[in-house]
Amino acid sequence: MSHATISQSISIVHPISLSHGKNAEVWDTTGKRYIDFVGGIGVLNLGHCHPGVVEAIREQATKLTHYAFNAAPHAPYLELMERISAFIPVGYPVSGMLTNSGAEAAENALKIVRGATGRTVVIAFDGAFHGRTLATLNLNGKVAPYKQKVGVLPGPVYHLPYPSADNGVTCAEALKAMDRLFSVEIDVSDVACFIIEPVQGEGGFLALDIEFAQALRRFCDTNNIPLIADEIQSGFGRTGQRFAFSRLGIEPDLILLGKSIAGGVPLGAVVGRKPLLDNLPKGGLGGTYSGNPIACAGALATLDAMTDAHLKTWGSQQEEAITRRYHAWRTQGLCAYLGRMTGVGAMRGIELVNADGTPASKQLTQLLELARDAGLLLMPSGKSRHIIRLLAPLTIEPAVLEEGLDILEACLRQLA
C-alpha cells in the first residue's frame, strides 16, 4: 500500500503493514507472523485485542459512542475517575481529568501548576520525553529530531542531569547540578514544577536513583514546588507494580497517565492532589474528546485485569526470563556489542556498545532489520538509538516470550 498520502516527516521504524494481532503476536498484510516486543510503544501491556477490553468496547459502542463530558457528564467517565482515584497508590485524596493522550495530560499539568503557583519555570531532565506537542517539546531532554526546525518553544524550561545507575550519573552529581542551577541560572522561587519520569522510556529505560528521588521530594516540599511524575510509559504494571514511583518511596503531587491506560484505545489523564486540580476557573480544563465513553470502557476493563496479583506475577515472570537470558548471553560472550541491561521489572533495555564504550547505533539498526526478517519486532531508545527497548505485553505466553528471546539471541550473534 502506498505511503504517498502520508507526511514524510513521520519516521517509521518497521516498513511493514500490519493486519491484525492477538496478545503478543501480530500479522502483516502478507500473512507473515511477528512476535511483538514493541507493544504499540508501551500501549499494549494487556496485549493485542484483550478479550475483556474488546468486549467492553463492543458493549459500550452499542450504548453511547461519544459525548463531551464538559457538555454533559456520562457514566463511563465518572466511573473511571472513581476507579483511577482508587488505583493510584498515594495517601491523599486524588482528583483528576481525562485527556486524549499522555502529551495532552502533560500540557494540562503545566496549566495546572501555573495556575496553582503563579510561576512559569519548569525543571525537566536530560533524556526526558514528555510528548510531541509544542509545550512538551521543550520538556524533552533531546533536540533531534523533536525540536529541530520548530523555532522558539514555550518556556522557560531548564534541564538537569538524570541520575541513574543505568547511565552512571550519581545522586551527588545531579544534586550538585541542581545547586548550580539555582545559584547561577534561576531563582528557586520562580519554579512552577519539576517533571520527571521514574523510569525514562525514550531515554533508554533508565531507572531513577532512589536517593535522588527522595532528596528531590524534600526539596520540593521545602520550596513549595509541585512534583510531577510522568508515568505514561512506566505505569499500569510495566515495572511489576501499579506505578514505578512506588519503588522510589515518594508520592508525586501530579501524575501523568497514558499509553496502557485503556488497552489500546487513545486515552490519558492527569491526576493528583485535589487542591492543585481544582485551582483553575470553571472551564479552564476540558476537551471535546477527552474521556470518550468507548475509551473509558476500555480503561475500566483494563483496570479489571490489572489486579496487584496479576501485575506482580506478570512482571516477575517477564523480568526473570529477560534477565536470565541476558546474563547467559553475557557469560557466553554471545555478542561483542552486548552492553548493559537497563531498567527495572519488565521494563528492560539492552544496550549495544562498541569496544571503546561508544554507542553502537549502526549495529542496533542492523539488529532491528535482522529481527524483523526473523519474525520479531523491536524498538530502539536512548539518545543515540543504541538501546533495545523491550515492551512485550505483560500477558505474553511464556513460550512466545522464550521464542522471541531465541530470535533476539540469534540476531545478536549475527551482528557485525
Automatic annotation (TrEMBL):
Record's keyword annotation contains Repeat: no
CDD domains registered for this protein in UniProt: OAT_like
Keywords: Aminotransferase, Pyridoxal phosphate, Transferase
Domain of life: Bacteria
Gene Ontology terms, MF aspect: identical protein binding; pyridoxal phosphate binding; transaminase activity
Cofactors named for this entry: pyridoxal 5'-phosphate
Tagged with keyword Transferase: yes
Short name of any one Pfam family annotated for the protein: Aminotran_3
Similarity section: Belongs to the class-III pyridoxal-phosphate-dependent aminotransferase family.
The protein, known as: 4-aminobutyrate aminotransferase
Species per Swiss-Prot/TrEMBL record: Pseudomonas palleroniana
